[in-house]
């Protein structure tokens, strides 16, 4: 049995994904050019806030750590890291992006003629919540996950689809749109977040309480080798297998496959509860603040109407 430091044998490219780093840097540069130099071409533009700058950089760092650092390599070796990756990407990074990207830019993108009808349909709360959780559950069926892990193309397409589904799912909660459209109330948002947690629970529960390892990718040496080609160059992988005594993923961890699987389910559930607690607090706080603001506005309007009424009657005295 080895330890986690053993993944260094797979080399720099497998551990740190330079191409993914370049992609993240490219997205970052395009984003900052769009919201600074090019923003004047977008209706409703405004200067970028300092908080948006910080949050976008944090989001990109988290995205790179989840998909470009050794965490991604480990996610193909140890199921616990796979679930950590899932939680960070879909339950943390995506919501952060709604606070990092100015609302006018999001509105501009989603109102394009070829995007708007699809976006409106996919962000309907009922569809959005079922679509993401359905994809998440399907992805973690043993037959599906093991199959996708054997194809770099299919695995990439499915994870991109899952990311898009997460973007759609969180839109009803965190959008700050100026577009006139039906919005969830504060109470509805609280219920919506609660339902996301409910729908994620069956998958986590099945993984946590299973009595045997469910995924060949993390137990069978041949299936594991196939999955490793997703992030390790074939030549490097063949060279390592010929020169070492690695027999499968168990070489890299002291946990049994079942313990690893159960730990992964617990990690997902615990992080979900933490992230959702923060979201619920944010939504509740903003709901109470907006209601208080509405009450103040109503009181002010009533006072102004009363003053006008009094002034009207005073002129006859």
Automatic annotation (TrEMBL):
<feature type="transmembrane region" description="Helical">
    <location>
        <begin position="87"/>
        <end position="106"/>
    </location>
</feature>
<feature type="transmembrane region" description="Helical">
    <location>
        <begin position="118"/>
        <end position="140"/>
    </location>
</feature>
<feature type="transmembrane region" description="Helical">
    <location>
        <begin position="266"/>
        <end position="285"/>
    </location>
</feature>
<dbReference type="InterPro" id="IPR014108">
    <property type="entry name" value="Caa3-assmbl_CtaG"/>
</dbReference>
<dbReference type="Pfam" id="PF09678">
    <property type="entry name" value="Caa3_CtaG"/>
</dbReference>
<dbReference type="GO" id="GO:0005886">
    <property type="term" value="C:plasma membrane"/>
</dbReference>
<keyword id="KW-1003">Cell membrane</keyword>
<feature type="transmembrane region" description="Helical">
    <location>
        <begin position="152"/>
        <end position="171"/>
    </location>
</feature>
<protein>
    <submittedName>
        <fullName>Cytochrome c oxidase assembly factor CtaG</fullName>
    </submittedName>
</protein>
<keyword id="KW-1133">Transmembrane helix</keyword>
<feature type="transmembrane region" description="Helical">
    <location>
        <begin position="191"/>
        <end position="210"/>
    </location>
</feature>
<feature type="transmembrane region" description="Helical">
    <location>
        <begin position="54"/>
        <end position="81"/>
    </location>
</feature>
<feature type="transmembrane region" description="Helical">
    <location>
        <begin position="12"/>
        <end position="33"/>
    </location>
</feature>
<dbReference type="InterPro" id="IPR019108">
    <property type="entry name" value="Caa3_assmbl_CtaG-rel"/>
</dbReference>
<keyword id="KW-0812">Transmembrane</keyword>
<keyword id="KW-0472">Membrane</keyword>
